[in-house]
């Protein structure tokens, strides 16, 4: 006569609501797609980072060659001290922009060193 258990109706079975906090098939597919997209973005970011690292390494190698050649020039100068012992300051700075206050800092440090040595700047 009367059933002891209630049977779910067709509308409850077809609306796609899952029990026990399980997602529907569509929700799971959306999550998988977003995971794939995140993987693609991560792969792109990794490629960009490796390109930047390679570029920095190439710049470092060229700078290393420049540094070695400039230090060899100073080491092999074969100079003798002058009789009147005048001091010469060789100051170098960057010729590129966007390097902050490096130019003024180099000039300020040079002036400070000259004042400490008792030399008047021209």
TrEMBL record:
Any one Gene Ontology cellular component term annotated for this protein: proton-transporting ATP synthase complex
Keywords assigned: ATP synthesis, CF(1), Hydrogen ion transport, Ion transport, Membrane, Transport
Compartments (UniProt record): Membrane
Molecular function GO terms recorded: proton-transporting ATP synthase activity, rotational mechanism
Keyword Ion transport: yes
Major subcellular site: membrane
Pfam assignment, any one: ATP-synt
Domain of life: Eukaryota
SUPFAM superfamilies listed in its UniProt record: ATP synthase (F1-ATPase), gamma subunit
The keyword Iron belongs to this UniProt entry's keyword annotation: no
Lipid bilayer topology: Peripheral membrane protein
Family: Belongs to the ATPase gamma chain family.
Name used for this protein in its record: Atp3 gamma subunit of the F1 sector of mitochondrial F1F0 ATP synthase
UniProt organism field: Podila minutissima
Gene that this polypeptide is encoded by: ATP3_2
């Amino acid at each position: 006569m009367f059933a002891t258990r209630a049977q779910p109706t067709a509308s409850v079975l077809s609306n796609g609501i899952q029990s026990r906090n399980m997602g529907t098939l569509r929700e799971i597919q959306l999550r998988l797609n977003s995971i794939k997209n995140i993987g693609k973005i991560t792969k792109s970011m990794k490629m960009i980072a490796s390109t930047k690292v390679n570029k920095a390494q190439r710049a470092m190698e060229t700078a290393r060659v420049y540094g070695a050649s400039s230090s060899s020039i100073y080491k092999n100068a074969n100079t003798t001290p002058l009789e009147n012992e005048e001091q010469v300051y060789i100051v170098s700075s960057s010729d590129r922009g966007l390097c902050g206050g490096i130019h003024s800092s180099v000039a300020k440090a040079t002036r400070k060193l000259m004042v400490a040595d008792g030399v008047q700047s021209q």
